[in-house]
Amino acid sequence: MVRTDPVTTDVKRPIRVVLPQPRGFCAGVVRAIDIVEKALDVYGAPVYVRHEIVHNKHVVDSLRQKGALFVEEVDDIPIGAVAVFSAHGVSRRVEDDAKFRDLHVIDATCPLVIKVHNEARRYSEQGCQIILIGHEGHPEVEGTMGRVEGNVLLISTVEEVDALSPADPKKLAYVTQTTLSVDDTREVVAALKRRFPDIVGPSAEDICYATQNRQDAVKKLIEQCDLVLVIGAQNSSNSNRLREICESGGTRSFLIPDADAIKLEWFDGVNTVGVTAGASAPEILVQGLVKRLDQLFDMTVVNLDGVEENVTFRLPREFRQVRTDGRMDGDRGRTKN
User: Fold this and answer.
1) pTM of the full predicted structure?
2) Which one is catalytic: 52, 140, 142, 309?
């Protein structure tokens, strides 16, 4: 049966909405949010968080209402206060500043970002100059560069490889930001290996499992969509990459913070629209957009099959509780997806 708008007698135009799997929150984001909430439970408000815990206004506003205070630098945090470092990671300088202010620090850095830090530090200790593939100004990039002794060379495109002037072309190593496009990173790494045959890098890609899974899901999504809406913040690297993948595949795409940002003209001539979300966007925003589309159109929803993620990350030890079986809550560690 064709439904009509409850306010007018206009017949709603049919539209097909396709939802990929996976989408939205990843394990690192879930862990970071849990850390802030548990810190508030254990220590009480306020708990200070350096930078946005994750790049999503909805999440930040929700935590702010519970008593979290977000600051740009540790100098903005009172001496001796409880402080949380965001999922993006921090430099050694930030850690040193926190110690100087006698802060009780709880580190919410994503374990996959810590893996990149460890790789960069290990290569540096072996005498290699580090090339970091990433985006200038991103918090994760700033944190990684601040973990390495010496001059780190930052690049983001194949073209920038040709402009590199390393101190010793035979003593180079590369690492990457975890939230980049899988395809773009692969091309940059290939260009590095062509120009510097002796360069070394991690045995496995630094691109995180969640980034790769969401990008793979979007590639399937664009095969059947006229338009794709990506829910995420403008400063969210992984969300921007999802939109870029859609555009490069020939499908129009817009990055929006929530349902209120959509424009009706986007849907002219559109029969099938895909809806996904970056790794720092909660599912409630996806469902809010689906509800809005249902108000505007005679909507049919299709759920695509995809990778089922079962990855979890440990909470800091101070937030793990001993259970009756002797195990620690939150100590499940990482499982394979």
Assistant:
1) 0.88
2) 140
